[in-house]
Specification:
The chain is mostly beta strands. It has 2 domains: about 30-185, BT2081, beta-jelly-roll domain (Jelly Rolls, Sandwich); about 205-285, Macroglobulin (MG2) domain (Immunoglobulin-like). Helices cover about 5% and strands about 50% of the residues. The chain has 1 helix and 20 strands. Strands 1, 2, 3, 6, 7, 8, 9, 10, 11, 12 and 13 form an 11-stranded antiparallel sheet that branches. The longest helix has 19 residues, at about 5-25.
């Protein structure tokens, strides 16, 4: 017996609903394979041809045939114009992901950061945010994980992902670049895990929680006894707090940062120990 026309209609509607529900959990062109007419599909970029083009298709893919490459270019008078790849005004989402994952290569001049951010909204209401700054270069693909911190119990309907290069004290430097491939939603890092013993190298961890309101914990590791400074400063380069300044034993350490007296916004924290120096970003939301 053939199914009735109404039943066929129900099946069709169910299939359409399933596809749309799936699309609401999928990052558009997440593998950066689609470049119709040489333009990256599903994303806005900092390109303004023919004046300048600093986001291009790259054959250095983590998987598939292509990835996206963004490079700081000189557009005159020594001004470094930074690349940006952004899903704006956003794409649909109907669940609460724990983190944004992706794979990257970088070549960063001193003082430059490769920066990934994800914002989750419900209408005009902010629901969650995740950020990840990268300050070291890598000639091989590494995975990044931008953990998402939720500020309320809402389920988002829109996600905005941004990837760009910023200069810590001014303009980004010509020649710094990133290559990104294979974005996905995934599990968060074990940010609360407490390591023991002595690390094999100097490390500066991403603060947790991030964003903070108003306090957070910053963890770092020392392979040997070292003179350590750990400072927090604003995006103008002005120091707002000094958390560590002294001789510290080898091992893992943690320090609290209280932003009660500061306004909401992006701040930077920088650790120096001997020849080691690393900078990360934190986000204060009140």
């Amino acid at each position: 017996m053939k199914p009735c026309r109404n039943f066929q209609t129900i099946l069709l509607l169910a299939a359409v609903f399933w596809v749309n529900a799936g699309n609401a959990q999928t990052i558009p062109n997440a593998g950066f394979e689609d470049w119709p007419g040489g333009v990256l599909s599903g994303w806005e970029t900092s390109n303004d041809p023919p004046t300048y083009v600093n986001v291009t298709k790259s054959a250095e893919a983590h998987s598939g045939a292509s990835a996206v490459r963004g490079e700081v270019i000189n557009i005159g008078a020594g001004f470094g114009f930074p690349p940006q790849v952004i899903a704006d005004p956003g794409f649909p989402i109907n669940f609460r992901p724990a983190a944004l994952h992706g794979w990257y290569k970088t070549s960063l001049m001193t003082g430059d950061l490769f920066y990934v951010s994800v914002l989750l909204n419900k209408g005009d209401l902010g629901v969650g945010v995740g950020t990840l700054p990268v300050s070291t270069s890598s000639t091989v693909y590494r995975e990044f994980v931008a953990d998402i911190v939720y500020v309320n119990a809402e389920t988002p309907d829109t996600a905005v992902i941004s990837m760009h290069i910023v200069g810590l004290t001014g303009y980004a430097t010509t020649g710094s670049y990133f290559i990104v491939d294979d974005l996905s939603w995934g599990a968060a890092t074990e940010a609360k895990e407490h390591e023991t013993g002595t690390p094999a190298r100097f490390t500066l961890k991403q603060n947790y929680p991030n964003p903070l309101n108003p306090s957070t914990t910053i963890r770092y590791g020392l392979p040997n006894r070292s003179q350590v400074t750990l400072t927090v400063f604003n995006t103008l380069g002005q120091q707002v707090a000094q958390l560590v300044n002294g001789d510290m034993e080898a091992g893992f350490h943690e320090v609290k940062f209280d932003g009660s007296g500061l306004s909401s916004g992006v701040y930077l924290y920088r650790m120096q120990a001997g020849s080691f120096a690393e900078t990360r970003k934190l986000l204060l939301v009140k």
